[in-house]
Amino acid sequence: MARGDRAALSGARDAVGAVWRIESARIVGALARHTGDFALAEDLAQEAFAEALVTWPREGVPDNPAGWLLTVGKRRAIDTYRRRAALDRKYAVLANDAGGDGVTTDWDPDQIDDDVLALVFTACHPVLSREARVALTLRVVGGLTSDEIAKAFLVPTATVQARITRAKKAIASAGVPFEVPPVQEWSARLGSVLSVLYVIFTEGSSASSGADLIRLDLAGEAQRLARVLARLVPGEPEVHGLLALLELTAARFPARTGPDGHPVLLQDQDRGRWDHAAIRRGQAALARAEQAGRGLGAYGLQAAIAQCHAVAPSVAATDWARVVALYEALATLTPSPVVDLNRAVAVSMADGPAAALAIVDGLVDALPDSHLVPSVRGELLARLGRDDEAREAFKRAVELCGNERERAVLRDKLDALG
């Protein structure tokens, strides 16, 4: 292959990859609306992109790449219905919409319509398990490949593919319609969507296992999807609350690790390295959540806590009393041992380690397999001068911790006790 041909092929592949990442959700959504078949729509989109990989290097990238792909997807749908000998009203509608040999041109890249929102609600339908929702959302809404999802969650690609296949079958078996649900159903359904984005971001911001503390691609994908969702449902305060939480948390990423990837604790971080543009975006999103006048939800309260850290010049200067109050409100709204553990950390800063230790000791049985409880206990015991007990707590934390970078920090704390 000549050098020019290789360059054309490489450029076309890059273009296909870029369009897939940006427009795949809208293309799958549009095809799902036209076919009424969620699983078929994703297959058609994949076939269209495969055809682009062959055609674009030879004929050049079209002026309207997304429109070209949508047209090819619709034609493949027609072929599918022909093969099924189902020349019914769907076929007539699809043939008309495909415009003969022309390419779809009514494609506004700045318009976010109900197709994407319907895609989000379908991928996060309560009929699916949490793992299936996460995998399907990253695949059909985020545009990630099965390999990318597997790498992000450190599971075999076959496992991800199986989850996606089962999810599609579950949606088909349950007769889940491809549509934006009625407004009265949004509260429950939207909660599932937000939960999926939160899980994706949490795994990205504090990896549960592996060699890296932060997986920027995974956390960044959750942020991108949260921004899309905020544009789709601008009147929902918890959507803005979640977006604020992700922005404010991600703002600290640049200072959370050193040049060697080793974690840097909050009190040692260079706050000048924090992403102040992300802080401003997070504060703006939090303000939108507050403007709704309904009171902050669980994500909004966590965002308010993150804001306390983001605006403080140092750990000592943080408004710990407000952080404690916010955690108490969060514990009332969504009771959880993890919330109580975080509240204990805030209490230790506001009222001292002894008051916090009493809270943590009550959480040992609630989180028996988490390294977080013995880690926090070790910190508090060390501050109280109970070094022998602190050593035992840190040893237990090292045993339970699955992330290599976090384990190294815990070992450093253990070594510091002698």
TrEMBL record:
<keyword id="KW-0804">Transcription</keyword>
<dbReference type="InterPro" id="IPR007627">
    <property type="entry name" value="RNA_pol_sigma70_r2"/>
</dbReference>
<keyword id="KW-0731">Sigma factor</keyword>
<dbReference type="InterPro" id="IPR014284">
    <property type="entry name" value="RNA_pol_sigma-70_dom"/>
</dbReference>
<dbReference type="InterPro" id="IPR013249">
    <property type="entry name" value="RNA_pol_sigma70_r4_t2"/>
</dbReference>
<dbReference type="Pfam" id="PF08281">
    <property type="entry name" value="Sigma70_r4_2"/>
</dbReference>
<dbReference type="InterPro" id="IPR036388">
    <property type="entry name" value="WH-like_DNA-bd_sf"/>
</dbReference>
<feature type="domain" description="RNA polymerase sigma-70 region 2">
    <location>
        <begin position="26"/>
        <end position="85"/>
    </location>
</feature>
<keyword id="KW-0805">Transcription regulation</keyword>
<dbReference type="InterPro" id="IPR011990">
    <property type="entry name" value="TPR-like_helical_dom_sf"/>
</dbReference>
<feature type="domain" description="DUF6596">
    <location>
        <begin position="189"/>
        <end position="289"/>
    </location>
</feature>
<dbReference type="InterPro" id="IPR046531">
    <property type="entry name" value="DUF6596"/>
</dbReference>
<dbReference type="Pfam" id="PF20239">
    <property type="entry name" value="DUF6596"/>
</dbReference>
<dbReference type="InterPro" id="IPR013324">
    <property type="entry name" value="RNA_pol_sigma_r3/r4-like"/>
</dbReference>
<comment type="similarity">
    <text>Belongs to the sigma-70 factor family. ECF subfamily.</text>
</comment>
<dbReference type="InterPro" id="IPR013325">
    <property type="entry name" value="RNA_pol_sigma_r2"/>
</dbReference>
<feature type="domain" description="RNA polymerase sigma factor 70 region 4 type 2">
    <location>
        <begin position="122"/>
        <end position="171"/>
    </location>
</feature>
<protein>
    <submittedName>
        <fullName>RNA polymerase sigma factor, sigma-70 family</fullName>
    </submittedName>
</protein>
<dbReference type="Pfam" id="PF04542">
    <property type="entry name" value="Sigma70_r2"/>
</dbReference>
